[in-house]
Specification:
homodimer; Rossmann fold; 3 domains; 45% helix
Chain lengths: 339, 339
Amino acid sequence: MKPKLTLKQIAKELEVSISTVSKALRDSPEIGEDTKLKIKAFAKLYNYKPNNIALSLKNRKTKTIGIIIPEIVHHFFTTVISGVEHVANEKGYNVLVCLSDNSFDKEVLNMEMLANGSTDGFIISLAKETMQKGDYHHLQEAINQGMPLVLFDRAVDEIICDKVIIDDIIGAGKATQHLIDIGCKNIGLISTVDYVSVGKLRTEGYLKTLQKNNFSINEANILKIEGMEYSDEEIQKFIIDKDLDGIFAVNEHFAISAIKAVLASGKKVPDDVSVIGFTDGELSKLFIPSLTVVSQHGTRMGEESARLLIEKLERNDLEDENYKTIIVETGLVKRDSTK
Amino acid sequence: MKPKLTLKQIAKELEVSISTVSKALRDSPEIGEDTKLKIKAFAKLYNYKPNNIALSLKNRKTKTIGIIIPEIVHHFFTTVISGVEHVANEKGYNVLVCLSDNSFDKEVLNMEMLANGSTDGFIISLAKETMQKGDYHHLQEAINQGMPLVLFDRAVDEIICDKVIIDDIIGAGKATQHLIDIGCKNIGLISTVDYVSVGKLRTEGYLKTLQKNNFSINEANILKIEGMEYSDEEIQKFIIDKDLDGIFAVNEHFAISAIKAVLASGKKVPDDVSVIGFTDGELSKLFIPSLTVVSQHGTRMGEESARLLIEKLERNDLEDENYKTIIVETGLVKRDSTK
């Protein structure tokens, strides 16, 4: 009845990070020799099996797919899960969902747990912290050992695997162009910090479209938000002293928050300010005014991810290095928040 | 590399339901002898291990908790998951989430998969279909074999285990009483069909409170909705020809839908009609008018569920038959949708 030793426990005992333990056990050159020796000796003493991916390969065909997402209280990710479920069930696969809470350590631990004989492959959207660190050794390791992987939405160039993304730059361009077409002259952007890949790409789409239309770029019209906690206050402060007549927000929450800030400042939506969001959440449809959005098609992204993964699993050729990137096209859904 | 035989495959091969296979392998008196013999012989031939709960007990301490929820695109359930995650991580447990999609078969299959060595115990909110059938053999089986179980929100009396529920009757009573207190004379109820336990209890709270206040009960003022698919249309039809001045809806979606139907009929919220929902979703806070609600405290329900389960796991006494029911108290949050 003795609990299994986990990465986390080794890290705690030796007072090093989970990432250090994980890398040391894989002989990464990033870790000093002394540390590696110490960690390996400790793991051996307690009979720790480094991430049993190889083991699970032998017993492949659990007929289970693991999804790791950064957040659960977020409509987009729940629609992706629905999409994965739909295709997976059709093809006789079960689905397990884990949360990384945007934490690098939790992402590594989740992968360790799921690879441990529970799943045949992964569908992952990266944690914010993972992208910030730029540390993808846990993903590379899974791929190296033949565990198929699909990255969706928050994907990175550093990892070569199947990917399902949307045309973020083009989608943001559509939103910005629409604001220009309906006569907006001073267009603001509410985005996330740049290390979140989709935030960066959507910012790029906004900038490119302004340039293409010979609009000057005003850095003061761009707000980059780090966390959700104080986003309402940040957005209110951003909007109050600017004379924006158009706002493009990279998610649903920011867009709704922007509308409320505009209304609070005594202006009208869409008469004085037009607002476009990036989402296909329920809130956008139900809100008054209903929200004009660049539609993300979360369900379709989930379906495509499941199809790619299952295709790879059933081909069952570990040497197959033929990776696909599926780009799900965004669409502009016009509703009442724009003129 | 041969795939494991699953319950589902046996059911398909023998052209019987998953429930029949599951019960036959457990020697249930509900299944005829012939059928049992056939199913058992088939399972033996293919070396199927009936639900490896007993097996997993030996290897107990996966330090993983399995959550099975009916729906994922639903704010309440995502807040419960957050709550479970929070306590579980604090205590060094991982969390795996599975969806039943409100299907009995999927619930049984999910339990089979998770009990198969992946988890130490379950936190479950029952599928609609399970409650409709009243078939809880899969839950009873888990308990009989010493696999701890916590039911939350959609719990049933038939299963004796730890439970976390809210005071649905009292909560619905608070909403109804508030509508009466602010002067509503003709109060409508938008609920779910009765076999969903929480819908039934909230209806009971509404009825009891009307009676206590000597209001007559008008069956025409009660709408019971089966699925979400056509709920908007049903609610619109329900509201249009009635002279309601107060509406209590048992979830967020129904409440928002009711407000939109009232507005569409040319009346005002809250001037002509006051509306109360049952939720603590984001939408209620962000909607204009913001929604007066009976707060469900999903996060706290998740936290309490995780605490109960982990307590039982760490006591590690399979004979322990001391079960608790924690009732999370609801609160009335007054906002702009009521006078």
